[in-house]
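Service request form, structural biology core

Requester: graduate student, group of Dr. S.
Request type: structure prediction, single chain
Budget code: on file
Notes: please return the result as structure tokens.

Sequence provided:
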Amino acid sequence: MPSRIEDYALLSDMQTAALVSTDGSVDWMCLPRFDSPAVFASLLGDDSNGMWRISPDGAQRCTRRSYRGDTLVLTTEWESPEGVVHVHDFMPPRGEAPDLVRIVEGVSGRVPMRSELRLRFDYGSVTPWVRRVDGRLAAIAGPDSVWVDAGVELEGRDRATYSEFAVSAGDRVPFVLTWHASHLPPPASVHAEHALTQTTEFWEDWVAKCEYDGPWREAVVRSLITLKGLTYAPTGGIVAAATTSLPEEVGGVRNWDYRYCWLRDASFALGALLNNGYQEEAAAWREWLLRAIAGSTERMHIMFGVAGERRIDEYEIPWLAGYEGSQPVRIGNAASKQFQLDVYGEVLDALSLARAHGIDNEGDLAWPLEQVLLEQLEGRWQEPDHSLWEVRGQHHHYVHSKVMAWVGADRAVRAVEGGLKGDRNRWAALRDEIHREVCEKGWDAERETFVQYYGARHTDAALLLIPAVGFLPGTDQRVVSTVDRVRTELASDGLIRRYPDPESNDGVRGDEGAFVACTYWLVDALALTGRRDEARTTFERLLELRNDVGLLSEEYDVTAGRQLGNVPQAYSHVALVNSARVLA
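Core staff response, request fulfilled:
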């Protein structure tokens, strides 16, 4: 049986990530980028698809683990009859090449240890040629090479590399794995202890910039660190998650690739960064956004690769069995080709937010580009779309999509009122027209609620964002009654699902769990409608869903009491940070 999703901790060098389980195994790692093929893919298969476990000989789950202070240095502890041992895992901020460093430390007694390394390139399908070169282990296949330096002897057998050794109190045994393009000269060796010091200092210095000082500082800081860990440093793009195909229903088909950058994350992520002192990261995200959407914008893409790539073709890989048998395993994401009206509003809102915080280069292309987007919004806002939920079934006139179209026009009016040149009257008329239509066609007077799409008889969790984006104030009775209706229709043990009966709503077989970010939207909506005690109670309930090292996936299975979906999920952590600010 694989580890549960909540058993994994994140390591990152701000260009890719690794997931380490409570049994000491690295079960997922893509090299050299977040969206590259995995060299460890047992998360979606079994040990034969690649993994690296370091633990006491015969041990299973660790005794405890934690990050070292406010860093992404993970310390895993095992207590055994023979003694106590720690394993320190981390990825130094990228230098010449991506490195994964593991240091085994003896704390007491003398503990027998075992390292088992199975390298498999291309998502577990390729076993590399392994040899020794100048005292190092070199594994090569096609374009990839991995180099391993170890403080103990390594032995190859059964298409794996083993080491069996013992540590006493005070012993420190280093292992360093480095990826390199196979046609280049070998990468330089990394000094593990120096890298540990430098990585710790990097994260401590970064966290020192955080301006949040509220009652949930630990949770907010950990979420901001996670968001930084999901950032592709060369471009500033933020991936939605570190993984692909972790299921929204165990054993089901709702398995998607989230290792890309979504436009709709822009305004949420910018707010989380800007409101907590991270101007540099926010500016980098804004610049990524502008580069990604520059050029031909007639058919707005809703997601991009970490460097701004537009082609994200979706395909399935049959040799991986899927997490707990959840197939298919998908690479790429076909939703990249969908029309989603809401992204216009989210992009325009994000650029407006950045401008309000002084992030705007004089004479840059942002405002002319925004005007182009506004022209397209004006011409397309009356079209049905796939919605922010990327439904693969029938198109509809989704209320949230229309609300975000209103946001786009509203932010344009604000920009002109703030001094930029543009046709204020035209955009104000567009804003008012959209508002009138949504209040007429998106409102169910009989049930006293806004609905998921025109003519629907049910709600959608995205309706909780109506007061947050300013479409209507939280004091408006229509907002209050919609929030109540969403809770009635979509809540399970206080957690919110995206919409009722997923299969009939989105055209994909099966069910799914409660959506973590949607429940944070409920927190915001409750606070904005004056029910702050309920909002705080719900927020603290959500904090209990985090795993032992503070991470959240996309969804939660209330019945089974476990996390679901890709992990760690940027949307969930951004929503946590923003809700903490709303409550403050």
